[in-house]
Amino acid sequence: MKLKKSAEDQMIFLYRYVSLSLTSLVFLFESSRLIAWQKLLLIVFLFLSVTLFTWIYRKYRLHDMVLKCCIALETAGIILLLLPTGGMDSPFKWYVITPMLVACAHLSMRYSWTLLLSYIGLVLTFCYIFFTPGQYFLWDMVLQNANLFLVLIVTTMAMQVIGVMKNELKMAKEQANETMEHIKSIYHIMETTSHNEALNLGQVISDYTVKLTKQSRAFFWLDSQEEDAPESSQTGWTVEEEEQLFEELENYREEFREEREPFFRHLPEWGDFLMITVPMTTRFVATIGLKLGPDQSLTGRRWLVQQLIFLAELSAVFLERYELERIENQLIVTNEQNRIANEMHDNVSQSLFGIVYATHSLRQTWHDQSKEQVEEQIELIQQSANQAVRELKGAIHSLSSKKSGGPTWLGTVKSHLHTLSKLNHVQIDFDIHGDHFSLPYLYQKALFRIISEAAGNAIRHGLAKRIDVKLKLTPQVIKLSIHDDGVGFETARMVAGGEVVSAGSGLGMMNMEYLAQSMGGEFDISSRIGEGTQIRLSIPVNAYE
């Protein structure tokens, strides 16, 4: 993996060459036991060695053991370099600052101080033995080189302080990025639940539970048998395992109803779970569960508890909003039914009653009337029938979105894609061929969920800037194609044996495939790194029925 050079690394590496150049220049012009060509040869060797060590530091800066060995080796080389260049009088004694900088920047404080003290001890020992045997006491050498040792100590301390500040800034940046990701996830949850079918709400919640907590498996279980309730759903298990998991949860129904705080539960053959009951005032009782790993720390679990509390409160808002919308829709339908009933009673039924009465009267008296009178009566009956037809057409027209220009399925899809395009600055082209008015409701719901999920994945995970959605509707088959220019991924790593094995494959992919297969259709996805993703779907219209 190629690492990007930081500004700190660039400064350190630049200092290595600058300091070596200055030190070599002083060494070249000062008097010593070596002649000129020997000095030049030594300087060339030093530059080659520094280049080699610099390359190793750049390539293996994330491998602590390699760095430790190389820094120790370079420091030992500097100590040996003092022997032919004058001992404590050698200008290269200052060059030890360069490996010390690398150690302070990338390794622990303990190693840096151990390296410094080892260097001071070894330099004093070598120079005392080889250069001043019996002439000075060791303490005298320490005092004579106090400036060097003081500079090394101060430099090490300064680099340690800078390292602490750098780590704090790095942690602050990571926390800021995590907060931004959290806010983006909240926005995506709100956006998804606003545009998705309510019956898909459980899948949205379980998907984002996995995303926010950075775990691999979660579920949303709703204790309700009503047909209009959102469906229980999960993320991370197969469809077969989902059924078994929810059957297991049925055994704890009464216990879950009594819980008011996050709680831990061990499910036989399933493992340890962190769960929370969603606090709601509606007719539903829901539970959010998170599969815990075997090495989950106490601090990590506290953070997961906080995330689940937040998700539970957010889920309660979504479910209560769904309940209010359901009640509102029922009231709207009831009011509309009452309005139409009143209109038919006041207009259509009265006209039909007049037609029936006039027809009965004409049948009884047409023998006693002239031809002109009979024709006049028939004409009046015809006018009344035409009036009743017009009134009936008006009532039908008010109910039909196709005729009245009201909201349609196609309008809902276009509005959703337009909102995604504006909010995320993405170009989305939607091309449709065929009669969408005759599309059955079940197909409308499934197609909307697939289009919404695919577009959302392309934006959030694929970082796409353009999405092309093509839908072809015929009486026999529905064909859907969704192509984006995002970063793409390796599909071979995404699915193996029907299970998602890569966390980066995008949430909801298996849900889209399941929707297509449940309608009797075929689902295919193709993608490559850097070449975007294409989803193709083919559903026979009569398969589901």
The count of strands amounts to: 12
How many individual helices? 17
Give the spatial strand order of the biggest sheet: 2-1-5-4-3
**N/C terminus separation:** 53 Å
Strand content: 5-15%
Q: Helix amount, in percent? A: 55-70%
Number of domains: 4
Largest sheet: 5 strands, antiparallel
Morphology call: elongated
Low-pLDDT sequence parts: 402-406, 495-507
Subunit organisation of the chains: single chain
| Rg from alpha-carbon coordinates | 39 Å
How would you portray this structure in words?
It is found in: Cytoplasm. The protein is an alpha+beta fold and 545 residues long. It has 4 domains: 7-172, no CATH class; 191-328, Beta-Lactamase (2-Layer Sandwich), CATH 3.30.450; 330-404; 409-540, Histidine kinase-like ATPase, C-terminal domain (Heat Shock Protein 90), CATH 3.30.565.10. It is 62% helix and 12% strand. The protein contains 17 helices and 12 strands. A hairpin with a 3-residue loop joins strand 3 (263-267) and strand 4 (271-277). Helix 11 runs antiparallel to helix 12 (371-399). It is elongated, with a radius of gyration of 39 Å. The protein starts with 6 loop residues before the first helix and ends in a 5-residue tail after the last strand.
Concise overview:
The protein has four domains: 7-172, no CATH class; 191-328, Beta-Lactamase, CATH 3.30.450; 330-404; 409-540, Heat Shock Protein 90. It has 17 helices and twelve strands. It has helices spanning 7-29, 36-59, 64-85, 97-106, 109-130, 138-144, 146-195, 201-213, 239-250, 253-258, 298-365, 371-399, 401-404, 409-424, 441-460, 491-494, 509-518; strands spanning 218-222, 233-235, 263-267, 271-277, 286-291, 427-433, 466-473, 477-484, 495-496, 499-500, 522-527, 533-540.
